[in-house]
Write a structure and sequence with these properties.
Helices cover about 30% and strands about 35% of the residues. With about 170 residues, the chain is α+β, with helices and mostly antiparallel strands. The protein has a four-stranded antiparallel beta sheet with strand order 1-4-3-2.
Length: about 170
């Protein structure tokens, strides 16, 4: 039996015009690299490995209501002063957002989108490190909501500091 949906009821097939919509259109690796500059000597190196993690994201509008979000992760592992490996991944996604105000759109692009991309980055980094002959490395979960809240707090403080400096 076919069901006729006219936009009413709980199971709307087509959201009403003007209603906020978010969709993930594509997930892809924009760039990935792995280096083990000290191999094979690094495998004989004794000492505690130290991993430094750098995380960033970039948002680019690529069409009407379509945004590319790129989550970049660089993991650098050193044993003493020698670099054991460097893994870098730029994981991207295309997200369509319509019907959101500017503040809500910014929050979604800064929190929901990187949360969506993070499991892909985590898997690629882990696979590259292990394929490089090193013990598995698993990125710990990242709270993008807290990072965004901190970014907003800093913006607010910078704005308040600039206003008081001009007074």
């Amino acid at each position: 039996m076919a069901e006729n949906t006219n936009g009413s009821g709980n199971g709307q097939a087509h959201p009403e015009q003007g209603q906020a919509q978010l969709s993930l259109q594509r997930v892809y690796v924009k760039d990935a690299s792995f280096e083990a500059p000290g191999a094979p000597q690094i495998f004989q190196q004794q000492g505690q490995p130290n991993v430094e993690l750098n995380l960033s994201q970039r948002v680019t509008q690529v069409g009407t209501d379509v945004f590319e979000v790129v989550l970049s992760v660089t993991a650098t592992c050193k044993v003493e002063d020698k670099t054991a490996y460097l893994a870098e991944v730029h994981q991207a996604g295309l997200f369509a957002l319509s019907g959101f105000d500017a503040q809500s759109r910014e929050a979604i692009l800064s929190t929901y989108c990187p949360n969506t991309l993070f499991p892909y980055v985590r898997q690629i980094v882990s696979d590259m490190v292990q394929a490089g002959g090193f013990p598995p490395f698993f990125l710990q979960p990242i709270n993008f909501d807290a990072l965004y809240a901190e970014q907003l707090r800093r913006r607010t403080e910078a704005g308040a500091g600039g206003a008081s400096a001009n007074a």
